[in-house]
Amino acid sequence: MTKRRGSDSRQVVGGRLRTRVRSLPLGLVAIVLLVLLAGCTLPASPDQFGTDREYGDLGEYSPEDTFAFDEEATAELSEAELEQAKYRAMARIEVVRELRFEHDVELEVITREEYREQRGESGTASPFVNEFWRGTFVVDGETDANQELDALYGASVQGYYTDDRIVIVTDPANDGVRIDRDTLVHELVHALQDQHFGLAREGETLDERRAELGLIEGEANYVPELYDERCGEQWHCLAASVPTDASTPEADDGTGGEADVDGDGDGDANSDTDADTDTNEINSGLFLSIYAPYAMGPEFVATLHDRGGWDAVDAAYDDRPTSTAQLIDPERYPDDPVTVDVPDRSDAAWEPITVGGESDEPRTDTVGEATLFATLWANGVIDRPLTAGAPEHSPYNYSAPETSGWAGDTFQVYQQVSTDGDEGTNANTDADGGEGGSDDDHEHHDSQHAFVWQLTWDTPNDAATFADAYRTLLATHGATLEDSNSPVPGAQQTIHHLPDNDPFAGGYAVSVSDDTVTIVGAPSTAALESVHDTVPTPTPDSTAATASPPARAGGAGPYSSPVPSAP
């Protein structure tokens, strides 16, 4: 099989999003992750392993090994014991995954203090990124998206994999290092993936990178499930999890980059963290968007495994998923999403933000089904527990009638043309798309911005259902309906206004044409036509435009948390 390795594999897998689901007052588990550092290296063993050996045959180590520390629920391992635990886990992973490690994996240990000293903080998000998250009603217009990511990711990291190296971040123990089975096995699976397939992602949009991450993290969560099934009767194992003194996030402890959001920031850095946070303290829409690959990826990989064994999973690395819709509904894989082109209908007062450099090509991104679900759920439009209907290998269910007909979308940001002759519109070009990149073109941060978001759906009814949902979202925030009269007889277009005192203030136009929904957002309703002269066409009847704001789950007020109680 062709290996796909990239020079950016360190960046892509510098930290892994990881969670253990616990019953919280509001039923949501917060996650965190992030990137690299160095520590004290444990004694290494021979780098290369033979390729003509049986699965699990690592010389003096085998899957059947038992050690004294297996009986301890909170074992503190010495360096020698940690090495034993690592090699035994590698042998067992080979048996479960039916894939051999090609060479050794370095294991390092650093203290949490060292980790905090060496991690960086993100800069200011670009206008494109801020408008992307504002238009999707995930981060409001008064908040910098990177600051929101910092607040979300600030927590305790237990470990991560990067560049043939697993780093364990631990609090000081009396006699050794604390590590749990889930963390060790998960990170070793990443090492195995890297040796055979590479961990660099090639997706150009946020949604495509989320999908690729769903394959990578999905396998890294699914293999430990199969591993755990053998613990007890067949194998003596380390404790599945161990208590830590750093399980509570620190309010001022931010992370650099966009957690895959991709820190890749895309949540991608393969870092194992254990941080439970009250949902009043986190952005639940942003969390659910980032967490989608980790929640839905295991079910996607399990489905591939059921269809064609590990050969089918191996093949997926050469034909990676391209949308989170494929994670949510594996029957959609490997069909690609629809390409959506956004025509430029702006007048001279507005121009698209471009990709930068010498290119004048407009910068665009794709929101995707998972993030659509995240924003509608977080804003109370989808009103059900996240766990309701969750598939066997996933903690949450990201499927809903309002979003399940998604076929493709494109989000494009506009900037008001400068009146002083300076019309530069460069935006940062980091590959993270709509996730926490910073922008060096700060002179344009004070300009006004707008967006055009076009979505294609499987059927006209799917399009109308989502348009109703977005209008309900606007109504939930207190939007007034400015105009529901269409210039075309029989057609429907609605214009909405959110007042200046609302953090999402501005004008919004929502129109439907057959299987396509077009949403335009601008600083005022008067500017909408200037940004995008929408030409509406007939669509199925919609009633959500004038509906009263629905009661939001989790509280009585329009801005109370929508997070349901734990089941």
Q: Can you put this structure into words, describing what you see?
A:
- This protein has helices at 9-12, 79-97, 112-118, 127-135, 145-153, 181-196, 206-230, 284-316, 324-328, 368-378, 460-476, 528-531; strands at 40-41, 106-111, 157-161, 165-170, 270-273, 350-352, 354-356, 359-362, 364-365, 406-416, 449-457, 480-483, 493-498, 506-513, 516-522.
- Among the domains are: 79-242 and 282-328, no CATH class; 350-419 and 447-531, no CATH class.
- Helix content is 28%, strand content 14%.
- It is built from twelve helices and 15 strands.
- The relative contact order is 0.14.
- The radius of gyration is 24 Å and the shape is elongated.
- The model is unreliable at 1-46, 243-269, 273-279, 421-433, 438-444, 536-540 and 542-567 (pLDDT under 50).
- Helix 7 (206-230) packs across helix 8 (284-316) and helix 8 packs antiparallel against helix 10 (368-378).
- It is an alpha+beta fold and 567 residues long.
Q: What are the key terms here?
A:
567 residues, alpha+beta, eight-stranded antiparallel sheet, five-stranded mixed sheet, 12 helices, 15 strands, 14% strand, elongated, disordered N terminus, disordered C terminus
